[in-house]
Amino acid sequence: MSSNQVHLVAKLEANTDVQRSDVARAGVGSYPTVSYWLEEFATRHMQLEPGRDKPIIANKRVWGTRLYFETFGLTLKQGRHFTDAEARESTPVVIINEFMADLLKDRGQNPIDAKLYARSSSDPITVIGVVGNLNLPNQAPIAHVYRPRINTFYPMIIAQTKPSAQISRPEINTLLTQVHPQIRVYDMQTTEQILSAHLKSQRVASMFTIVLSLVAIALATYLVIPLLLGVMNWGSECPLAAPKQYSNWS
């Protein structure tokens, strides 16, 4: 990962033109696809001590920056958030949700400063914070792990807008050229479309009361960096439960 790549992606997150009046905030990370919310998809395993024979804690993992997770509506309950430096350097620290924190407590472990290990790894990852649970309506809690990282291989941006905001593709392209002149929007999908593609006949999509519009962006330089720009219009403190409206970009 080059410093220029990291700088470009970080600039997208901090750019004041992107974060104008109808964009409340935006952050860079790896978009949690269906696996972020549904237990049957892409489960990871963490352990309290190294060794394949040791007990595991099944969880979902998402990479991103502090602003990325805050844009999702994750509220810090204990400890602290990631720093920008930790995201740039992929520091081995982690924030977990309350459900996973309770699992650690049940095993006699204080969540803050707990050491976790990826399966088959002896390198410790330190828990620095606990955030609230973020689940689909009527869904049982799932353990979630949040790691600091600016992913330059397939980075994505998620942006929260005000309920009345209407953003067009030309507007998005104009804003993005303030960051880099060759960044352009080339595709968009709603969350319902993503869910439908993954779940087909299942009616999980009807559980959503928000639409997360995803915009894929390509950077036509020596390095092609696909990005996803999501716009969520939230009308309450529970972003997955009671938004007001949405923007469908096409």
Automatic annotation (TrEMBL):
Domain MacB-like periplasmic core: 60-167
Name of the molecule in the record: MacB-like periplasmic core domain-containing protein
Bilayer-spanning residue ranges: 204-225
Keywords: Membrane, Transmembrane, Transmembrane helix
InterPro entries cross-referenced by the UniProt entry: MacB_PCD
Organism of provenance: Pseudoalteromonas luteoviolacea NCIMB 1942
Pfam family of the protein (one): MacB_PCD
Superkingdom in the source lineage: Bacteria
